[in-house]
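Intended use. Records like the one below are meant for learning the mapping from a protein sequence to its folded structure. Do not use them to infer anything beyond what is encoded.
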Amino acid sequence: MSNQNLDTIKGAYAAFAKGDIPGVLGILDSGIEWTEAEGFPYGGTYNGHTAVLESVFMRLGTEWESFSVVPHEFIDGGDTIVALGKYSGKYIATGKSFQAEFAHVWKLRDGKAVRFIQYVDTHLVQKALQA
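Structure written out for the chain above:
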């Protein structure tokens, strides 16, 4: 089995860690279906690069200090890649920090991510949002 899809997803996390949002968007299919967990501050499904950029990435970059997404394990299922890791950051409006484990499920087709689903303990995130 080729590791191309796994390498693509690892590259997305590396780009995000460097603040290279164009690099992250580059691995997404133009019609990406991006689902943030219900109860997460940006919960819902976004379709396409512009929606993901404006509704997720730009908000993460402006509403959080040092928001990080650090995967510690990948499960390679070919066209489905699962990343397990930890979020952390400080919500600027409240000054509160959080850490929460996540699972991300990626579906790829022709070397591009066509679907992303986030799983996270949203209660831990919500505690950081509350004054």
